[in-house]
Each structure stands twice: as C-alpha cells, then as structure tokens.
Amino acid sequence: MENKKHSITVAGLGAGDMGQLPLGVYRQLKANRKIFLRTKEHPAVSELEREGMKYTAFDDVYERHDQFEAVYEEIVEILFREAEQEDILYAVPGHPFVAERTVQLLLEQSAAKQTEIKIAGGHSFIDALFASVRVDPIEGFQLVDGIALKPHDIRTNQHLVVGQVYDTLTASEVKLALMEKYPDEHRVAIVRAAGSTDEAVKWLKLYELDRGFELDNLTSVYVPPLKEQDLRDFAELRQIIAALRAPDGCPWNRAQTHLSLKKYLVEECGEVLSAIDNEDEDNLVEELGDVLLQVLLHAQIGEEEGMFTIEDVIEGLASKMIRRHPHVFGNVKAESAEEVAQNWERIKATEKQEKRE
C-alpha cells in the first residue's frame, strides 16, 4: 500500500511583532504540533515562545554553508523528509511569496515529492517598510536582493527596496552598485525591523551606507527615485527617441524612413572606424552613440509600423550569441580562437540552411 503523503503549510509571520500577526496564522501556529521556522530571529517569535510554542529553527543550517542556495536546498530537503511522517507547518518572515526562496523551491518540487503545499498569508515587509519611510509607491517600485544586486538591474526613476542587507560587507557591495547609478550624496534610508516595536529608520547619504548602523536579517535599504532624468538609463534614451518621432516632436526625425537613414548609418560607422584608427577614445564614445542612435531610430520606425521593436532586435542578438557560443553556454569545448571561429561558421551555415527550408 502506497504511503500517505502529508502536507506542508507555509505561514507568513508578517514583518512586525505578534500584534501584527494575522489571526489565521496565529491559529495555525497554535494548532500545529510540528512547527519549523526558517529563522527564529523575528520579533514575533519570542512572544510566541512565551505562549508555549515549540519549534525547530533552521538558523544552524546557515552556519553549515557558505552559499545561500545550499542553505535553502537543505531546508527544503528536511521539510519534505519531515512531511513524509506527518503534516507540518513552516513559518517564514513576512509573506511566503515575498523574497522567500525556500517557498519557491517547495512549490517547484512539490509535484515530484507528491506533497501538497498550502500557503497561509502574512503581512509582507514591503507594506511595513513603505509605512516606515512614509512613501506611497504608486508610481512604481523595484524589490531586489542585496546579495545579487547589479547596477544594470536598477531603474532610477522608481522607488527601490533592497532586501537582505544583513551585514556590513553586503551593505558595502550594495553601496558600490548603487553608486554606479545614483549620486554619492543621494539620500537613502536604512530600515531595520520595519513594523515592529524595534523599528529603526536612519536616513543618510549613499556613500555612508556601510558606516555606523547595526545590520541584521531584518534590515532593508530604501532608495528614493531620482528627480532628474537619468541620462545613463537605456529606457530613458528610448523615450527620448520616441519623443523625437512623436507628432509634436522633431520634423526632421519624423520624416525619416529606413531608406532615408541608410546613408547616415554608413557615415557614422565610418566615423567610428576613424576614431579607432586615431586611438581617440573620447571621440569613439561619441561616435558609437551616433551608431546607437541609428539603431534606435530604425527600431522606433519598426515599432511605429507594427513590424518589430528594439526588444526584438535585442532578443535576436542575445539568441544568436547563445547559439553561436556553445563553448560558453553549452557543453562544446573550444580551446582556441580558431576553434571558436570554426564553430561560429558551422553554426551560421546550419542556421542559413534551416531558414531556406
């Protein structure tokens, strides 16, 4: 007879202390005999302990691994193993669907493990954080992981929340990434334990982000949007080109077609070559920008005609680079530039043949 599979209920503890714990989650915590916590470092846990709640926390798992993904995989493995014996409850900070990698892993593996995953709500730390900094994010915001933050992921015209800024090293890395996009003196807020009685908010200049403030797993960073145009942002450049082609835009740009722009692309490419020959890097930057202008104008015309967009151009290029570099993105071996060139030509020929067919 097949063993009966039990369920895992994932409950969100909310962002604050027990006063903000949803009643339904509180009842689940009181009713379940087998409770697991991703971490006991949460404002509500000490109060629940005083009410007699017994639990197993996974804080020690963090100590056994250098990489977070390994931590999360071990936690999930333990949870599925325990669920083979009985129904269990797994409690996480905030809401189960906000910045909780273990929950995503549970859902991804639930079918293979034949284990039902139930979700019980909880207030997200995002709600509490925006209340802490007195901001309505209606114009748009980004939520990013401080551990994996890259400058090109950031949209400076939106509110930005950086989670998992749990120590000085992470704060330093976050600071360096942000300084690629924001002025050094841009005002940011460090928010700790948002929504709890221990809440602390400190506003400071960006370059001070990793100095003199206690950081832990309840710490996030809030970055307000830039008030002025971010002329280093690709989306901003697209809007400028669209404005030039708009009905109330530039008459010359509105009059251009793919055919009329041909000569300008040739001219600009020639000027790029001249800048390279002259080893003039400042001029090279300018001339590459002029070539990019031609690409964006053609893409804007294509979008207006309903034929293609700049995203189509980018997707086509990205797909080609992946296909033609199997030694980087696949399992093919290429030890020299000559082998790479041979692979490139072979793949290119195959692609052409497939198009003819």
UniProtKB/TrEMBL annotation:
Boundaries of every Tetrapyrrole methylase domain copy? 8-209
Task: Choose any GO biological process term that the UniProt entry carries and state it.
Answer: dATP catabolic process
Q: Which domain of life is it from?
A: Bacteria
Gene3D superfamilies, per this entry? Cobalt-precorrin-4 Transmethylase, Domain 1, MazG-like
Residues of the NTP pyrophosphohydrolase MazG-like domain = 256-329
The GO terms describing molecular function are: methyltransferase activity; nucleoside triphosphate diphosphatase activity
The UniProt entry, under NCBIfam families, shows: mazG
What PANTHER family does the record point to? NUCLEOSIDE TRIPHOSPHATE PYROPHOSPHOHYDROLASE
Q: What is this protein's name?
A: MazG family protein
Q: Which organism is it from?
A: Heyndrickxia faecalis
